[in-house]
Amino acid sequence: MSGKSGPSEQELRIKANQYSSELKQLAGKIGELESELNEHHLVIETISKVPKERKCFRLVNGVLIERTVNEVLPALKTNEEGIKSTIKQLTEQYQKRDKEFMEFQQKHHIRIASG
Length: 115
Hints:
two-stranded antiparallel sheet, mainly alpha, 2 strands
């Protein structure tokens, strides 16, 4: 018979705080990306209505670059798809970690106090 019992209360608290912190970080990043996605969508929607040869400006790594709508639109659409994909991955990761956290709480009979 093993002399060691389960994790201490402090270890459980640390682990619960790690889960909580990680979930908050993931939610924050998802929120940032959703805001960025919305901005991309608005720009795509707006410049899709103007002539393709019209010049527009795009900020790339802090440098304002002059291009045509025809040059910028495909890049914006590619970026939009990339952001959607990243949001999907982060959402799946969030759901997985949230499920793990719930199982951890049930296993160790932990209730998180709100407020």
